Amino acid sequence: MSGYPSAQYTAPGVNKSFSTEGVPLDSLTSNGSTSGPSPYLLQSTNGTYVDKDKPSDLNLDSSMGRLRGYVTKLQDDINVYLTERIKETGNDALDQESVLEQDVEEDSGEDQDIESTNSN
Question: What contacts 1, CB < 8 A, 6 or more positions away?
Answer without folding.
Answer: none
